[in-house]
Amino acid sequence: MAQAWAMKLYQSREWRELRRVIIQERGLRCEACGRLVHNASDLTADHIRELTPETVQDPDIALNQDNVQLLCADCHNRKHQRFGHTGRGVFIVYGSPCSGKTTLVNQLKLRGDIIVDMDLLYQAVSGCVLYDKPDNIKQVVFRVRDTLLDAVKTRLGKWHNAYIIGGYPYKAKREALAKQLGAQLIYCESTREECLARAKERGVFAADWEKYVRRWWNEYEP
Q: How many Cβ atoms from other residues are within 10 Å of residue 41's Cβ?
């Protein structure tokens, strides 16, 4: 199961900035197998000396560039699967669009986990590129999402952890969903300005994503 003390580190601004700097300096290449990836979110910044509840408090270990390697998903899974799983966890990872929710989940996930992410569902159903979300298929994508959420709620299958990624700006709705799923809420903290800056990096979809960010912050209930 994903550990709360590790999540606290991976949500911090210090860690996100360290990860950004490492990728900027080393490039989009897995340091284990040498494979190039297309997006920074496809790389996990993994600690060489493993984190524990004690070492996560030590910046010379937790925030030391020399103790971090960039791994693709296959190499990350290969490294950590040997530790097995201590139980199931369900996590609702919420926050503004462009706040880093997918990056956080990619840092935590392992092979055999479930990820419910509307961006990925739109891509899977439509065949469009990531972040292109045709409005005319919205009802279908929402139905697929609800089916997956029902599988999480009933603990269908033998998956390990489940991560539900979404905006969930309304407090009552996200807390009700957490209660329904038996889930832990994880807020992906970023400022409005940081999210708008990241939205501008989404190419031809930048204007749409800036609109999504502004709407979320107008609706957000802490």
A: 16
Amino acid at position 103, single letter: T
Q: What mean pLDDT, rounded, does the chain reach?
A: 90
Please tell me the predicted confidence (pLDDT) of residue 142.
96
* Cα distance between residue 33 and residue 121, in whole Å: 29
Over residues 56-71, the pLDDT tens digits come to 999 999 999 999 999 9
What pTM does this model have?
0.76
